From TrEMBL:
<keyword id="KW-1133">Transmembrane helix</keyword>
<keyword id="KW-0472">Membrane</keyword>
<feature type="compositionally biased region" description="Polar residues">
    <location>
        <begin position="10"/>
        <end position="19"/>
    </location>
</feature>
<keyword id="KW-0812">Transmembrane</keyword>
<keyword id="KW-0067">ATP-binding</keyword>
<comment type="similarity">
    <text>Belongs to the ADP/ATP translocase tlc family.</text>
</comment>
<protein>
    <recommendedName>
        <fullName>ADP,ATP carrier protein</fullName>
    </recommendedName>
</protein>
<feature type="transmembrane region" description="Helical">
    <location>
        <begin position="496"/>
        <end position="520"/>
    </location>
</feature>
<keyword id="KW-0547">Nucleotide-binding</keyword>
<dbReference type="Pfam" id="PF03219">
    <property type="entry name" value="TLC"/>
</dbReference>
<feature type="transmembrane region" description="Helical">
    <location>
        <begin position="277"/>
        <end position="299"/>
    </location>
</feature>
<dbReference type="GO" id="GO:0005524">
    <property type="term" value="F:ATP binding"/>
</dbReference>
<feature type="region of interest" description="Disordered">
    <location>
        <begin position="1"/>
        <end position="59"/>
    </location>
</feature>
<feature type="compositionally biased region" description="Basic and acidic residues">
    <location>
        <begin position="40"/>
        <end position="50"/>
    </location>
</feature>
<feature type="transmembrane region" description="Helical">
    <location>
        <begin position="122"/>
        <end position="143"/>
    </location>
</feature>
<feature type="transmembrane region" description="Helical">
    <location>
        <begin position="455"/>
        <end position="476"/>
    </location>
</feature>
<dbReference type="InterPro" id="IPR004667">
    <property type="entry name" value="ADP_ATP_car_bac_type"/>
</dbReference>
């Protein structure tokens, strides 16, 4: 009997060894031994012989559990995608209201010193506000890191979304009260009592202008932070294979939310008024927080809530050998990243410098981003200036701006879903870097040549072109470049370029514009110099892109 049992055990062991990779239904039997406790060889042989007969039912159960879990993950991703789309819709409403009020004559900075001696001077406050976005973003990032450590990603996203909603609602209430005071005729020097507050102001602008300035800075800093946190959840829940299929529809859902909200601005302003757009934006942010909380709730309930300690999933084991090596490198670097988190930020800059020395493509991209963002900030200011001069009514300007951004978001969505995938089949991706500055050179040259009679049309064309390319072409070109680089380039390099180069370019141009407007004011020839500067930066952008294009070609050859 013992001899028979030994022979049967050997036969069973041989059969199980031949089936070790798969039992016909994709269920590895070796995982039973990996997940169990340490047992003797005799017990493991006996257990294997028993598992052979029961493996179909076990694998069927595992398969059903995997399908259910995958369904729950996609439900959580859909909830976060809806939160993202609603958030972007709220931002469009808030942006339209804030920009119209910021450039208004009643509550904002719209009056020029050529028309009134009491005003500090036109739209010179706009580039100053843009320049303050970068330092405020750094403080906001520090505050976000504190909340992230305190309560995790779910707590941080909820807190910051509700702060954003509360700021919109409070500023809407305060600006609405100040706007009512403008309708009242008071004697010169008499104090105006703000409804709901216990103090008065002699001039509405002493309270409305700082409020709008802070709201502009707050809004532009917060939108990118919350946007990145929505995508961080989505990227953590989905596997890379799933992400390649789901990222485009999710981005499209966000574009739809932005387009619908921007297209409704004119109707909403006409029916409810300009300031009430801030209340609606706050309500949308609250709704976005609800959807985000539902997504995190599903993730926690089913055990796939994102956390810094477990960023890799078992489904990633099906990657190719090259991807597995990248995965091991990612885990290795993530451990070193945690150990280096206590090192001063100076080390980050030294690492970035050495990285740019090792990977010249990143250094060229860093310079290209700075120049392009300088041009974007300048074109944005010219557009807002022309818009203010052409459409003086605040409500009409907000409606026109909303429809304009709706077209930008809509065309960007069409490019992302249909045009770019087709073009990439017949054209190399790195040629996008040459197309973007060439397009802007034509636009700025046309605007410069037709400065006296072009008006809003040429300014709108230039701004439309650069924003559409930023939302569609640049994103595709960036990701296709980063995916060909190593881990350090994809993570450290990408962070440095997006946070430092992009912010520095906009802030540098904003500070320069502020200085120009303060020193020279809104003279008749100031716009000529601004347009000439735009042409110069378009040429610089083209030169930097030519160098970047050449380095990318050499990199891809190797």
């Amino acid at each position: 009997m013992n001899i028979r049992r030994a022979a049967a055990a050997e036969s069973s062991n041989a059969d199980s060894g031949s089936r070790n990779h798969s039992d016909g239904q994709g269920c590895p039997l070796s995982s039973v031994r990996k997940n169990g406790a340490d047992v003797s060889s005799h017990e493991s042989i006996k257990k294997n012989s028993e598992d052979v007969s029961s493996s179909p039912s076990l694998c069927s159960a595992k398969h059903r559990d995997g399908v259910v879990l995958r369904s729950k993950r996609f439900q959580a991703v859909f909830g976060m995608a809806m939160s993202l789309a609603i958030h972007l819709g709220g931002y469009e409403l808030s942006r339209a209201a804030v920009m119209a009020l910021f450039t208004s004559d009643g509550l904002g900075f719209g009056k020029s010193h050529h028309t009134t001696s009491s005003s500090e001077g036109g739209l010179s406050a706009l580039p100053m506000a843009v320049g303050c976005v970068s330092p405020f973003s750094i403080m906001l990032l520090w505050f976000y890191a504190k909340t992230l450590v305190l309560g995790g990603p779910r707590y941080a996203l909820q807190i910051h979304t509700m702060i954003c909603a509360g700021a919109q609602i409070f500023c809407g209430w305060l600006l609405g009260a100040l706007d009512q005071l403008l309708e009242l005729k008071k004697e010169d020097g008499a104090a105006l009592i703000v409804p709901g507050l216990s103090f008065g102001v002699k001039d509405v602008l002493t309270l409305s202008q700082p409020t709008l300035f802070l709201l502009f800075v707050f809004q532009n800093a917060y939108v990118q932070l919350l946007y990145n946190q929505h995508w961080a959840f989505i990227s953590s829940v989905l596997t890379p294979d799933e992400g390649t299929q789901a990222f485009a529809p999710i981005a499209g859902l966000g574009s739809i939310g932005s387009t619908l909200a921007a297209g409704m601005v004119s109707t909403l302003v006409e029916r409810f008024g300009l300031i009430r757009l801030l209340y609606m934006a706050g309500a949308l942010f609250v709704m976005s927080a609800v959807f985000a909380d539902v997504a995190f709730g599903l993730a926690r309930k089913h055990g796939f809530e994102p956390s810094g300690d477990n960023e890799q999933r078992s489904a990633e084991k099906s990657f190719s050998n090259e991807q597995e090596q990248r995965l091991l490198a990612t885990k290795k670097h993530s451990i070193h990243g945690k150990m280096a988190s206590t090192v001063s930020t100076q080390n980050i800059f030294r690492q970035a410098y050495s990285l740019f020395q090792r990977v010249p493509v990143l250094g060229a991209l860093f310079l290209e981003v700075i120049i392009s963002q300088c041009l974007s900030s300048l074109v944005n200011y010219i557009f807002l200036y022309k818009l203010k001069v052409s459409i003086t009514d605040d409500s009409m300007r907000a409606g026109w701006s909303g429809n304009f951004y709706a077209w930008i978001n809509g065309i960007s969505g069409v490019l992302q879903f249909f045009i770019i995938p087709i073009l990439l089949k017949y054209c190399e991706a790195h040629r996008i870097w040459l197309f973007m500055p060439t397009m802007m050179l034509f636009c700025t040259m046309y605007q410069f040549v037709n400065n006296t009679n072009s008006g809003l049309f040429a300014a709108s064309a230039s701004f439309f072109a650069i924003k559409t390319m930023e939302y569609s072409l640049r994103g595709a070109a960036n990701e296709m470049l980063y995916v060909s680089l190593d881990y350090e380039s994809r993570y450290l390099g990408k962070k440095v370029i997006s946070l430092i180069a992009g912010k520095f370019g906009k802030s540098a141009m904003a500070i320069a514009l502020s200085a120009v407007m303060v020193v020279y004011g809104e003279r008749a020839d100031t716009m000529w110099y601004l347009l000439a500067t735009a042409v110069v930066f378009s040429c610089l952008w083209l030169l930097s892109s030519v160098r970047l294009h050449s380095l990318i070609k050499n990199h891809l050859k190797h």
